[in-house]
Amino acid sequence: MKKQLLDVAIIGGGPAGLNAALVLGRARKNVAVIDEGRPRNAVTREAHGFLTRDGISPSEFRRIAQEEISAYPSVSFVADTAVSIAGTNGQFQIETAQGQAFESKKVLFAVGMKDRPLDIPGLAEVYGKSAFVCPYCDGWELRDQPLVIIVKGADLMHFAPLISGWTNRFTICTNGPDELTDAQREELSQHGVPVFESPIRSIESNDGIVQQVVLENGTTVPCRGIFFKPELVTGSDLPRAIGCDITEAGSVVVDQFGKTNVPGVYSAGDAATRMHQAIAAASMGSFAAAAINNELNLEAWVRNTSEI
Ligand SMILES: Cc1cc2nc3c(=O)[nH]c(=O)nc-3n(C[C@H](O)[C@H](O)[C@H](O)COP(=O)(O)OP(=O)(O)OC[C@H]3O[C@@H](n4cnc5c(N)ncnc54)[C@H](O)[C@@H]3O)c2cc1C
């Protein structure tokens, strides 16, 4: 198998990987962006909060990004899944599902996060259309609407005050025991927030727009939108496979420049933070790219000095 030689293999071509590719392409580095094209936000029609791109569809965002990056000929795009990684700093070997092989001096994991299967009947039908995960991304569109928030315990006590900035017409469904203290229940009651612990039987919707949430105890909660806390895992097992430290929440542990505990391996975007926003992911990709470029240039400088 003939290996393609790279300065940087970027695994994942969402906002994080693409912004890293842009910075590295402009820094004249030989880069491949290996991307299987299954971003978490593919379910949604519009992405918000990215300056100059507010309301753009995720696929259009990627198309424009790839078009811009194509101006830099040392960057190539590989539509494939990276399935294995081995080696050490300066010489990583990466193989893909379709049998391509790369040898790369540095690696950037921009693999995002993946949702675990949604286990509430009817939730998949509304996810990305009227059920969302982040009020900063989709709260404006649902402002002043009656909402159901599916969350429990400490997350509930974080989410209730947060969502009240967009609407005061919301009901909490904890889909099982609420995991609250008496003091927390009292606090919610003082704010007039209804909390239902009964498990959710189904979410009823019309063309992707939620109509009501039906509970096992027979209660129905009419609403026009839902926010819920999804269960997530790292977008790929490869960071763990090469020895990266991973938090309990599934994030790759990095420093402020995206450097992992494994020399030569970086991570950026959703995979390496709990703040899941496209512009934050792009920013992390940019920082990591600068750090990688700096490392590559310094290594070449030192090599050249010893040869003089
Ligand atoms: C429903 C929903 C709505 C959202 N709305 C907004 C919004 O309005 N505004 C906003 O700012 N953010 C929004 N987000 C969050 C936003 O989508 C993420 O923060 C952003 O996409 C993260 O970028 P990323 O590059 O880190 O990862 P991603 O965009 O997830 O890209 C990761 C890429 O890596 C690929 N990949 C993973 N493993 C491999 C592998 N082994 N080989 C090859 N490729 C691989 C994946 O297929 C994917 O294409 C939303 C998220 C969801 C779920």
Automatic annotation (TrEMBL):
Span of domain FAD/NAD(P)-binding: 7-285
TM helices/strands, residue ranges: none
Pfam family, one: Pyr_redox_2
Domain of life of the native organism: Bacteria
Keyword Membrane recorded: no
Co-factor(s): FAD
Tagged with keyword Repeat: no
UniProt keyword list: Flavoprotein, Oxidoreductase
InterPro entries reported in the protein's UniProt record: FAD/NAD-bd_sf, FAD/NAD-binding_dom, Ferredoxin-NADP_redctase_2
Family matches, as PANTHER family: THIOREDOXIN REDUCTASE 1-RELATED-RELATED
Quaternary data: Homodimer.
Protein name (Swiss-Prot/TrEMBL): NAD(P)/FAD-dependent oxidoreductase
